[in-house]
Amino acid sequence: MRTFARFVRKPHLARGFSSEASLKERLKQLIPQKRAEHTAIVKEYGHVTMDHVKIEQAYGGMRSLMCMIWETSVLDAEEGIRFRGYTIPQLKAKLPKALDQGGEPIPEALLWLLLTGDIPSKEQTATLTAELHRRAPLPSHVEGLIRAYPKDMHPMTKLSSAVMAMQTDSKFQAAYDRGLHKNDYWEPLLEDALNLIARLPRVAALIYRIGFHDGKVPADDRSLDYSANFNRLMGFGPNGRAPVKKGDEQGFDELIRLYLTLHSDHEGGNVSAHTVHLVGSALSDPYLAYAAGMNGLAGPLHGLANQEVLKWTLEFQQAIKKAGKEVNEASVAEQAWATLKSGKVIPGFGHAVLRKTDPRYLMQREFALKHLPDDPLFKLVSTIFTVVPKVLKEHGKTKNPWPNVDAHSGCLLTYYGLSEYQFYTVLFGVSRAFGVMSQLFWDRALGFPLERPKSVNSEWIQNYIKTLPKEMLAKPEKPPAGAH
Q1: Helices vs strands, H then E, count in the chain
Q2: Which of the two residues, 476 and 414, has the higher pLDDT score?
Q3: CA-to-CA distance for 239 and 228, rounded, in angstroms?
Q4: What order of strands is seen across the sheet that includes strand 73-76?
C-alpha cells in the first residue's frame, strides 16, 4: 500500500512537502483520541435516555427519532446545517478557495474538514487535491461497462452499477479476507473511500458525455482542483457553455465548487446517508455501501427532487407564457394555486427537519444575484421564492412552506449550459460521497457495531396499548393559537 503522504507534485497544487501532517497522519493522531472519547461516553452515560419513541414515529418513518451518531454534520430545524460545527457562511469564510476574492470553498478542503474536524491550510488542501488526482484512474473494465449501457438507462442506474463494478478493486474487502483486526479496519477503508471519491468525476463524466453528447471524455487536468477538472471532463469550460460575461470568467467552476460543498452532507437520517451507514455496518465495503446509498438517493422523495424541481419550474414557466402573461407575483400566485388545486404538490418546498428557508437555498440565491441577476429563469425562481410560501401558508397543509436546496440548483446549472436535468442526481451523488464516506470512515475507526433496531408488529402495539393506564393514553392538549 502506498504511503498517503506521497503526492504528484504540480506547481499549481503544491510547492513541496510540508511539515504539516498529511491527512492520513492527522487521522492516525485523531483515532485514539476519538476512540477514548467514544468509550468514555458509553461507559459513563450509556444508561441515560436520549429520546422516547412514539407510536406515530414507528408508523411514520421514524421521523425525528434521535437514535444515530453522525459526527460530520448536524441539522438544526431553525439554523440549518452545520458541518463539524461550522455554518455554511462560516465555511465560505474559512475554507481555502480557488479564487481569493469572494470565491467559493474548494470541496476537497471540506473533505479534510469532514474527516478531521480541522480547517485545512491551502497547502494541505493542495496536497489532498493532488492525492485525489493520483487515485482517479478507473479499473480497466469500468469504462467499457458504462459505454455498454443502454442509452436510455437512467443516469442514476448507471452510477450505481458502475460503482458496484469498481468493487473488484476494494482494498477493505481484500484486507478483510486476509484477516484484519477490527481496530485496523479504518486504514483500508480510508483507501477505498478516497479512491471512490477520486474516481467519481470520471464515472459521472462518462455517464454524461455518453448519455447526452459525443461520448468523448478528455484526460484529467492535474493542474486543476477537483471541481474545475470535473467540469473539463464533462466538456465545460470555466464559464460553462454560456457566453463569457465580463467578471464571470470562472462562473461555472465556482458554481460546481459551491454545489459540491452544499450537497455533501446533511446529517445521518436522510435516506442516502442512513443507507450507507446501515449497509456499511454489516462490514460491506465502501463501494457496496455507497452504491446502496445512491439507490436511495435516486428516489423522487430524496435526491431525484433535484431533477423534478427544474422540470416543474420549466413547465410552470411555460404555463404562464401560454396564458399570455408576464412573470410577476400575480401570475406566479395564480399558477401556484392551479398546481395545488389539481392535486399536485409544489416541489422544492418543505423539508423533513427544517422549519425555515434552507441556508443552502440562500447561498445559491446569493450566487445567482452575483452571477446571473438578469436571467429569466432566475427571475421566475426568485418570484416563486417570494410568492409560494404565502400560497402554501394560506393553503394550510404544509408544515414548512419555505424552499429547500432543490428549489434553486437546477436554475443555476441550466444557466451555464448543464440543462440535462436527468443527470442532476448523479451530480448530487458525487457531492454526497464526501459526507457519507467521511462518516463511514469514523464508523469503522470507532468500531460502531452492526445496526439492528428491534421491530414489532401492529398486534404487539395493540396489546401494549391495553396494558397502559388511561392517563398515559390521554392526548396532550393543543396549545392555543399563537402560543409559543
Answers
A1: 21, 3
A2: 414
A3: 10
A4: 73-76, 80-83, 86-87
Which triple of cell numbers denotes residue 442?
Answer: 469514523
DSSP, res 403: B
Gap between the Cα atoms of 92 and 382, Å rounded: 23
Indicate the helix (H) or strand (E) that contains 158.
helix 155-166
* CA–CA separation, 411 and 405 (whole Å): 11
CA pseudo-torsion sign 428, 434, 439, 445? positive
Looking at per-residue pLDDT, the higher value among 281 and 345 belongs to 281
| Residue boundaries of the structural domains of the chain | 51-297+429-453, 305-415
Determine the length of the chain: 484
By DSSP bridging, strand 73-76 and strand 86-87 are unpaired
Superfamily of domain 305-415: Cytochrome P450-Terp, domain 2 (1.10.230.10)
Position 13 scores a pLDDT of 41
Contact 259, 303 (CB under 8 A): no
Domain 51-297+429-453 sits in which CATH superfamily? Citrate Synthase, domain 1 (1.10.580.10)
Question: Helix, strand, or coil here: 439?
Answer: helix
Distances in whole angstroms, Cα of residue 228 to Cα of each of 222, 287, 324: 10, 24, 41
Segment 406-459, tens digit of pLDDT = 889 999 999 999 999 999 999 999 999 999 999 999 999 999 999 999 999 999
Collapsing DSSP to helix, strand or coil, 132 comes out as helix
Burial 194-203 (b: 16+ CB within 10 A, else e): bbbbbbbbbb
Phi and psi dihedrals of 421, rounded to 5? -70, -15
Q: Cell numbers for 375, please give them.
A: 436571467
Residue 446 is given by DSSP the state T
Helix (H) or strand (E) holding 81: strand 80-83
Per-residue confidence band for 480, with pLDDT thresholds at 50, 70 and 90: low
Rounded-to-integer distance, Cα 407 and Cα 415, Å: 15
pLDDT digits (tens, 9 = 90+) for 215-263: 999 999 999 999 999 999 999 999 998 766 777 889 999 999 999 999 9
Reduced to 3 states (helix: H, G, I; strand: E, B; else coil), residue 269 is: coil
Active site residues: 302, 351, 406
